[in-house]
């Protein structure tokens, strides 16, 4: 199983998880730059910041992606996350205020669920590559953003589908590869890579608790990490903030 994409001959089609955020738009640009024909996959999962789907739609349209699947599931019925329930989203004044514990914004098993849907879609579209924008450096400590998780899911993927277990020739041409090209990058490095690929970050949204459903709050973990990434690059974030 390969996490990174360097020196891997691309197959014609790849499924890209597209949330409408900074990381996912960067990953989309990476997949397109590597020559993949992209199938985009987004989720309405009961999140408070459901406005991100409108951004995902706009990004997919701007990138010329004709095949964009939006799946509607309801993770809010499970509870225990500030992103899907009436639990207040934590706010901070500085990145240094973010603790080391797994925060209440963690959505139980979210990336496992998302990747499972991506795996099903990839099999139907005969795509052997899945791209996800998880990051293990500048992130909120979510367990399903770690390299160990991505590696484990890659192994599972090749035990779970018809297309990966019925190759009579014994080659790995149809083996599923989970690509996490941002896994070892800081937010600043991700932004640098995106700008190199002409990503328009003004189209993205990262805020967990937007004001009036559109303005970034500027104080949730996602906003602070994003703002820090632009600041390190001596850039101004092109999106609007409430404060």
What this model shows, in words?
- By secondary structure, this protein is of the alpha/beta class.
- The protein has a single domain, classed as Rossmann fold.
- 32% of the residues lie in helices and 10% in strands.
- It contains seven helices and five strands, in the order βαβαβαβααβαα.
- A five-stranded parallel sheet has the order 3-2-1-4-5, with helices on both faces.
- It is globular, with a radius of gyration of 17 Å.
- 41% of the residues are buried.
- The N terminus is likely disordered.
Give the secondary structure arrangement, pairings included.
Layout: E1 13-17, H1 22-33, E2 37-44, H2 52-62, E3 68-72, H3 110-124, E4 129-131, H4 147-160, H5 162-165, E5 177-179, H6 187-196, H7 221-232
Parallel strand pairs: 1-2, 1-4, 2-3, 4-5
Strand segment tally: 5
Terminal Cα span: 43 Å
Instruction: Give me the Rg, rounded.
Output: 17 Å
Assigned CATH class = Alpha Beta
Task: Tell me the β content.
Answer: 5-15%
Number of domains: 1
Helix count equals 7
At the fourth CATH level, what is the homologous superfamily?
HUPs
Question: CATH topology, what is it called?
Answer: Rossmann fold
**Largest sheet properties:** 5 strands, parallel
């Amino acid at each position: 199983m390969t996490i990174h994409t360097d020196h891997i001959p691309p197959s014609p089609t790849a499924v890209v998880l597209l949330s409408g955020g900074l990381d996912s738009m960067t990953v989309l640009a990476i997949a397109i730059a590597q020559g993949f024909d992209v199938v985009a996959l987004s989720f309405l999962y009961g999140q408070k910041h459901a406005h991100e789907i409108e951004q995902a739609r706009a990004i997919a349209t701007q990138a010329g992606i004709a095949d964009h699947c939006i799946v509607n599931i309801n993770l809010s019925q499970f509870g225990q996350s500030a992103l899907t329930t009436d639990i207040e989203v934590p706010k901070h004044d500085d990145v240094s205020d973010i603790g080391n514990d797994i925060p209440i914004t963690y959505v139980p098993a979210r990336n496992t669920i998302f990747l499972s849907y991506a795996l099903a879609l990839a099999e139907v579209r005969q795509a052997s590559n899945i791209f996800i924008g998880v990051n293990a450096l500048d992130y909120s400590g979510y367990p399903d953003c770690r390299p160990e998780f991505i590696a484990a899911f890659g192994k599972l993927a090749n035990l779970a589908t018809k297309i990966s277990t019925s190759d009579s020739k014994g080659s790995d041409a149809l083996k599923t590869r989970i690509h996490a090209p941002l896994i070892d990058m800081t937010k600043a490095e991700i932004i640098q890579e995106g700008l190199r690929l002409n990503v328009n970050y003004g189209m993205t949204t990262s805020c967990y608790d937007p004001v009036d459903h559109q303005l970034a709050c500027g104080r949730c973990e996602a906003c602070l990490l994003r703002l820090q990434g632009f600041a390190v690059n001596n850039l101004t974030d092109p999106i609007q903030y409430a404060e």
